[in-house]
Structure formats: C-alpha cells, structure tokens
Amino acid sequence: MQKGILSHSDLSAALGEAENRIEKSDDRKLSDANRAATIFPIRVLLLANQASQSGRKLSIFRVCGIGSEIDIDASGAGK
Description:
single chain; mainly alpha
C-alpha cells in the first residue's frame, strides 16, 4: 500500500474473492476444519488491511482473543 502498487480496496476485493471461492468451493477433499484453516489467514489479512486503511495497527493477539491471557515483555517473549 505504501508504495502505491496496490490500493486498500484492490487488496480487499482480491482477498474477499479468495475467501468467497474457498467458502463456495465444491471440493469435497477439504474437511470443514481444513476449509476454516484455509480461510483464517485470509480473514486476518482482511482485518489487517482494514486496520491499516484507518491508520491503526492490528494485534494478532487481539484477533485471536488471547490479548488478556498472556503477558508479552519488551523482548516479545511470553511470561
């Protein structure tokens, strides 16, 4: 985004299309758990793009709902 190669809306559209294709895929080889695992990083990237567009940073701990469960010290190591 910062280099102007791809806009937030272009990225959002591409990620949304990827998510829709996986959700609507008739591929019976993917279990529901595998389908959800495939979609998860796409959704995280969508959230990160939305946060970046509004000038915020995305915390993966907050996305996963574990922000209050672990304490990260300045070095990034969990306590």
